[in-house]
Predict the 3D structure of the following.
Amino acid sequence: MLTALMSGHALTATELAQEAGITVQTASSHLAKLSDGGLLALRKQGRHRYFSLSNEDVAQVLEGLMGLAARAGHLRVRTGPREPALRNARVCYDHLAGDQGVRLYEAMVARKLLAVKDKNAILTKPGAAFIGEFGIELEPLERARRPLCRLCLDWSARRTHLAGGLGAAFLERFYALKWARREADSRVVTFSRRGEKDFEALIAV
Amino acid sequence: MLTALMSGHALTATELAQEAGITVQTASSHLAKLSDGGLLALRKQGRHRYFSLSNEDVAQVLEGLMGLAARAGHLRVRTGPREPALRNARVCYDHLAGDQGVRLYEAMVARKLLAVKDKNAILTKPGAAFIGEFGIELEPLERARRPLCRLCLDWSARRTHLAGGLGAAFLERFYALKWARREADSRVVTFSRRGEKDFEALIAV
DNA sequence: CCAATGCTTCGATTACCATCGAAGTATGAA
DNA sequence: TTCATACTTCGATGGTAATCGAAGCATTGG
């Protein structure tokens, strides 16, 4: 919820609950605590209650915390109880989104397999070697008209993951290796126990 | 423990446990988590393990967090389980120390009843009015040789509270009003239920 | 090699917090 | 008035984390 408020916009309790994937009751209790703690400002407007970060300092500290988390590779956003599977791993068009998608992307950036500049990603030389070792053929992807690497924003509009031809290739490879499969009638991607372990090893630094 | 490490010195697990008022076992588990999280750096030296903040950014973020907490008046340090009463309120020479002592001091600073400059505190005009209303006679204190306002550091050497003639006068007044009493054979100061409430009201902004 | 010191790991207990259904309050619309 | 919407409060539940005693590991000094 705090991350959502980093935009600077004021949001209602219901919107924030949706953002966080929790019920309004739960959100209400947390928002009350955050307000009491002086982190949030409250503006009543009719039957709506708009919450926003109380000042620039709060945003600054959050920015700092997120920076520390990102550097340590611990940006795994703690998922709410609502639809946890969906938040963990899901299909976004034809590539992997959700926590696992974000982790894959961030690990690749951290290991300099991807070079990100101006919201565009480029596969580095070590990156090309990496995907080759993982069993993805680079050539046909490069020949295709589709861009190799694109960045995709999560619904929360805060978390980036890898899309484009390479993103799709990764997911296909996960399917082929039986690391994961797609649930019927759902966007949920389920990792097998074994697959999860191998996936962890793949993205480990 | 993080606060203790803000000094920039590296400290051992045992020292940090003492600082936090917890056992070494508990400290060890927390230190392991903080290290895993990338907040702490570890230097082994013989049978000692020295922990320190891993980099300047961590210190920066902590500083920011403490700033937010201080501004909101929520600097009440979460006390460990060991000797909680002692940490909450105790006698330091002849004035109030522990969380309650710190809160009193910080509330007075926040309300500009005390002006702090260069680690010296001065009672402001509103401050003089405040203590008068509270039933402390200023004149005899000012005539005494003892300094009116002195700042005293907690054993943790991180938390400031009010000492000097005024600090002593406050504690005396708390005794006189039956807000608090000193436990026998102990430095612990116990607030009555009523006294706690009135104390809260006194320091409320 | 043994004892002492510094620290970690294990296991069990306890306290606490998040969570959400249900019910209550407040505002606005019909 | 009555209903609908937005939100909070209450209460019960389950899960999780802090805590510490006991035991284990590692280093040093004798």
Summary: The first strand of chain B starts at residue 11 and ends at 12.
